[in-house]
């Protein structure tokens, strides 16, 4: 009888303490997180682009996911749908968040509109309030792409699987050393995210966007004290 009495209280004590211990482990992880690195500064603004439906936007003062669908955007719908389902739907209600999709100008302009219409069909509201679609000629597209840091070039059709995170000051964010890779010395930088690789979007890109929102939230509260690493401090190159 006595053993049963003590056993019951021991079990109750364990059930009470486990969540408390779990929260104590989470607390330092939440407040002592590692800020997202600046991998390139001064990303080119969008002022030379023409926007679908005259819905204009800028990179300044926004947290932006930037993607390039090229000359034939409709052929790259898988990339757009992945970003819609895995990124846009998660962050669209966050203040100052947006996605900007870039496609080539006439005669490909209508394909970008078709991409927008197809994506709108998957939303409850029937519109993409925080998603913008912009077109320009090849030179303008290449100019903005060259202002980004990437391990890949745009292909001959102005397309890439890679998507980029841009902060409110037009700095490109990423990881100077991506430790979650196959290179043992951890020297590989993650500057962009593959929109075809669902695992990379879920495990890396979404985490990095959350980290960036946490940074701005802490800045608003006045308790952001960590220095953000910049790639120029590591390789002396900020081309």
Task: State the main characteristics.
alpha+beta
Describe the structure concisely for a colleague:
Helices cover 39% and strands 17% of the residues. It has helices at residues 2-31, 77-91, 109-120, 138-146, 198-221, 232-235; strands at residues 37-40, 50-51, 63-70, 97-104, 131-136, 159-166, 172-174, 193-194.
Structural account:
This protein has six helices and eight strands. It is of the alpha+beta class. Strands 1, 2, 3, 4, 5, 6, 7 and 8 form an eight-stranded mixed β-sheet that branches. Strand 6 and strand 7 form a beta hairpin. Helix 2 runs parallel beside helix 5. The longest helix has 30 residues. It is globular and about 80 Å long. The protein starts with a helix and ends with a helix.
Give the helix/strand layout.
Layout: H1 2-31, E1 37-40, E2 50-51, E3 63-70, H2 77-91, E4 97-104, H3 109-120, E5 131-136, H4 138-146, E6 159-166, E7 172-174, E8 193-194, H5 198-221, H6 232-235
Parallel strand pairs: 3-4, 4-5
Antiparallel strand pairs: 1-7, 2-5, 3-6, 6-7, 6-8
């Amino acid at each position: 009888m006595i053993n049963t009495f003590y056993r019951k209280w021991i079990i109750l004590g364990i059930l009470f303490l486990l969540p408390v211990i779990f929260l104590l482990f989470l607390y330092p992880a939440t407040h002592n997180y590692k800020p997202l690195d600046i991998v390139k500064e001064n990303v080119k603004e969008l002022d030379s682009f023409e926007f679908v439906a005259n819905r204009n936007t800028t990179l300044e003062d926004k947290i932006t996911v930037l993607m390039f669908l090229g000359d034939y955007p409709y052929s790259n719908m898988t990339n757009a749908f992945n970003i819609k389902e895995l990124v846009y739907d998660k962050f669209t209600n966050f203040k100052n968040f947006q996605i900007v999709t870039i496609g080539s100008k006439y005669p490909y302009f209508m394909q970008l509109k078709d991409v927008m219409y197809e994506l709108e069909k998957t939303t409850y509201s029937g519109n993409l309030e925080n998603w913008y679609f912009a077109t320009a000629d090849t030179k303008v597209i290449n100019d903005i792409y060259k202002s980004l840091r990437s391990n890949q070039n745009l292909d001959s059709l102005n397309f890439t699987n890679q998507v980029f995170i841009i902060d409110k000051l037009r700095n490109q964010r990423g990881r100077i050393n991506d430790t979650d890779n196959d290179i043992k010395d951890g020297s590989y930088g993650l500057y962009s995210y593959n929109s075809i690789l669902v695992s990379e979007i879920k495990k890396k890109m979404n985490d990095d966007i959350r980290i960036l929102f946490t940074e701005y939230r802490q800045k608003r509260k006045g308790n952001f004290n960590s220095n953000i690493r910049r790639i120029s401090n590591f390789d002396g190159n900020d081309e």
